[in-house]
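Q: Hi! First time doing this. I have a protein sequence and I read that you can turn it into a structure. Is that right? Here it is:
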Amino acid sequence: MLVHIPGLLTQDELTYCQATLKAAQWGDGRETAGQQSAKVKNNLQLPQNSKECQELGQIVLRALGRNTIFNSAVLPYRVSPPLFNRYENGMNFGAHVDNAIRGIWAGDIHTRIRTDVSSTLFFSDPDEYDGGELTMHSNGHEQTIKLPAGDMVLYSTTVLHNVAPVTRGSRLAAFFWSQSMIAEESRRQILFDLDMQVMSLRDRLGDMDPSVLSLTNIYHNMMRQWCIL
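A: Yes, that's right. Below is the predicted 3D structure, encoded as structure tokens:
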């Protein structure tokens, strides 16, 4: 699954986040890397306990809560607190696999999530930097992604990926992981496709059309069978 979500943030949210990120104090990006990933990670990151990281994280989480495509595609059970990174000239993140399980803090409680879906939210426009493409490696094919500021991409955490070296400018982004209520990726894709069709039919025929009601019933019955809570 690879899903592009345009305009996740409002313009006011985007402007505020960009200004905050540009003025923030950054640390070593290897702070949150696993043992293997740390060997190929060369970037900067907002400290997790910093005021800026926590404040901007809440802005991103609120935006996710109101976004129909994110909730339909991911069917989130838990979402990790967003983290923020910065790539300057010469920085990159070599090919790596994200950890299957990540520890997170929910208030004073430490818990763990299974990482099913990865997300990257861009805060720099493509013309602000050269290089820095997010590249997916799957079944012998490569796909590069470089989106406008405020846009987000969702992709399966099972996919090997890297961030190409930045050769000019600064690349700012947020990244985080979600545990889905549907563990199996192919089932998430089926439900996402079905939900998109239901929403299209609702727009054309209305909520109470018999075909809409029937497909909605099928969708929720499949959810009951496949959801893991």
